[in-house]
Amino acid sequence: MGLRVTHASFEHYRNLDGRSMDFSERLTVLVGHNAVGKTNVVEALQLLTCGRSFRRPGAGDLVEAGSERGRASLAERGDGRIVDLELLVDAEGRTFRRNGKNVRPSTIAGELVSILFCPDDLAFAKGSPRGRRSEMDDFGRQVNKPYGRLVSSYEKAVEQRNRLLREPYVDENLLAAWDESVAAGGARLLGHRRALFGRLRAAWQTAYRAIAPGEEPDVTYHSSLGDDGCLSQDDLQARFLDELRARRDEERRRGMTVVGPHRDDLLFTVNGRDARTFCSQGQQRSVVLAWKMAEVEVVEQVRAERPLLLLDDVMSELDEGRRAAVASFVDRGVQMVVTTTNLGYFSHDALADAEVVSFDER
Asked: 145, CA 20 to 30 Å: which among 73, 114, 189, 280?
């Protein structure tokens, strides 16, 4: 079964001071008006399960106004394991603790995989390539720790190379050394990312067809290195080096590395039409929902356990059919935490077995 979130408590964390709550193993609904703290709970759950937040807040942003420091704690139980997590925040930074010992955020990531679906994700199909890359890489960090290390190492190498490219006089020998480093790291990352993409693509197509019968979905990986899907890692590295050298003048003018996994994209189509520009809003939402469903499926495939699914204020954005697709996760044994302003989106039977936490009554 894996770990399950059982309890959370907060002290001077955003606007949640003094609040604590229990979680159902199946469905927990956080209900209340807007701006009462529901999303702050979701953010804390994400921070304490994957070490980062969709809001990308500064440490000081997490502390209640007028307080010097804040704390969020989370209890996880399952498979005979007891995991108590804490996040301590002040103006200077964040400290994560696991069972009383300080740990790095990367140590927390992936112990219990969490998948977030929020209103901003509805732009996934038609938004920027950066958003689609980040979605896949953030998921990869949780599912596979070596993947996360590859992403971090590659990003640092590209950052260092970009600094060198922006200097008035570039040391050619030093630039050649960074070429080798970026190409080697990029080839490794691209190999892992393509493997992850292959799993997600198959699961996404299945999920989309279940949501929208009769429609034919597809997604392709667009590499800035060209058609590289059949290349070995050594050949990928050689191709990468060739591209860096061929575009040297352009890179110096722009002061940035213009090819590599950090420039790649995903292209979604429905019935052969580009989802970014030719699909309806409903189809675009199906693209996003199916992708989240695919992430759940891949966690189950790779880790033989179920993730924590966080749904922040998305039920109002979905029609009845797509809400039913979301609700089906409970029947599969996925632990869900949902925020809403309206309990009417849930059936009587679903609420009968749910933990309902009201934010309008304290």
From this structure: 73
Of 168, 181, 180, 179, nearest in space to 248 by CA: 179
The backbone torsions φ and ψ at residue 85, rounded to the nearest 5 degrees and listed phi first, read: -115, 145
Nearest to 178 by CA among 97, 107, 244: 244
Which residues of the chain fall short of a pLDDT of 50?
A: none
Place of tokens 């979680």: 23
Would you state the pLDDT for residue 362?
A: 58
Q: Give the separation between CA 158 and CA 346, rounded to whole angstroms.
A: 47
To 10 degrees, the CA torsion angle through 224, 229, 234, 240? Answer: -10
Query: Do residue 229 and residue 206 come from a single domain?
Result: yes
- How many CB atoms are located within 10 Å of the residue 362 CB? 9
pLDDT at 8: 98
The tokens describing 76, both together, are 């996880």
pLDDT at 321: 86
Asked if 282 and 192 sit in the same domain, the reply is yes
Q: Which domain holds residue 228?
A: 118-301
| CB-CB neighbours of 188 under 10 Å | 20
CA 85 to CA 209: how far, in whole Å?
38
Q: Domain count of the chain? A: 2
What 3-state class would DSSP assign to 102?
Answer: strand
